[in-house]
């Protein structure tokens, strides 16, 4: 399983403080801790299944998946479902069984399925003699009946591409939709990325990373996702660095003006 790349251990030093926004999901997680995974049944609760996180690309779905694993101190296994389909009759089902067996052997653990819609894309095209549908059924049955402490985090960019069965009750504990960040969330994300990088006194100079600066920049970044906010902070820093001077508010403003967020490009295409 490891050799085929179907399952891969992910190590990351990302923590919840690295995630700006995503308040609903954070609140939900806050009420649950690692021991919930192990001891839910003791209190008459169902074994935790996991969460499905959907939303626009670059808004932090992968980021929070990694942060959850560090918050709960659990190993993070990335499950690449698309690699399950080997083309040899029968072995896709065996690959799925083996992946599930491996994850359960490592429990308590997090099984992270990134872009789950891609993994089951063969189902909609119907071009694989029902193998995708059978493997998908296997996965759903496992989710439904799961008793092990394997917490599944499935992330998806395109909820429309997901088979409706996946959204039915009993599969995931909760489904979260992550939208474009609000102004307050953008300020938080700006803060995360500034604080992570603007540490050296030569870089900061007289620049004040205070509430009003964050609010001003957050106002200017409507339509930006987290990845675009991170990119603009890096661009502003690079601008100052390449001119061998400390950073100024104007560097951030210029970086914002030079960025056309993907959400705007997409909206223009629709119009
Ligand atoms: P994709 O579906 O394209 O993989 P995603 O939603 O999983 O996108 P990430 O890969 O988590 O997005 O985001 C890319 C990078 O952008 C992150 O590593 C992080 O540095 C930054 N970023 C995105 N969202 C946030 C956020 N909410 N808070 C802080 N940083 C963010």
UniProtKB/TrEMBL annotation:
<comment type="similarity">
    <text>Belongs to the AAA ATPase family. Highly divergent.</text>
</comment>
<feature type="domain" description="AAA+ ATPase">
    <location>
        <begin position="47"/>
        <end position="182"/>
    </location>
</feature>
<protein>
    <recommendedName>
        <fullName>Uncharacterized AAA domain-containing protein ycf46</fullName>
    </recommendedName>
</protein>
């Amino acid at each position: 399983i490891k050799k085929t790349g179907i399952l891969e251990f992910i190590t990351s030093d990302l923590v919840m403080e690295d995630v700006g926004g995503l308040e609903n999901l954070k609140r939900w997680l806050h009420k649950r801790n690692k021991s919930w995974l192990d001891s839910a049944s003791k209190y008459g609760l169902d074994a935790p299944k996991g969460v499905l996180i959907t939303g626009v690309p670059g808004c932090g779905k992968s980021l929070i998946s990694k942060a959850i694993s560090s918050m709960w101190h659990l190993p993070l296994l990335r499950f690449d479902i698309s690699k399950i389909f080997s083309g040899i009759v029968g072995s896709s089902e065996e690959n799925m069984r083996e992946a599930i067996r491996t994850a359960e052997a490592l429990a308590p653990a997090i099984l992270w399925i990134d872009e789950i819609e891609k993994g089951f894309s063969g189902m909609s095209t119907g071009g694989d003699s029902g193998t995708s549908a059978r493997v998908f059924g296997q996965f759903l049955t496992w989710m439904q009946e799961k008793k092990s402490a394997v917490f599944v985090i499935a992330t998806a960019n395109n909820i429309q591409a997901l088979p409706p069965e996946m959204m039915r009750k009993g599969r995931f504990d909760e489904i979260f939709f992550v939208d474009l960040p609000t102004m307050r969330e953008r300020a938080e994300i700006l803060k995360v990325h500034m604080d992570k990088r603007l540490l050296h006194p030569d870089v900061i100079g007289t620049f004040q990373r205070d509430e009003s600066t964050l609010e001003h920049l957050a106002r200017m970044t409507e339509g930006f996702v987290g990845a675009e906010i991170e990119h603009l902070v890096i661009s502003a820093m690079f601008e100052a660095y390449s001119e061998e001077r400390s950073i100024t508010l104007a560097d951030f403003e210029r970086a914002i003006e030079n960025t056309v967020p993907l959400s705007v490009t997409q909206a223009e295409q629709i119009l």
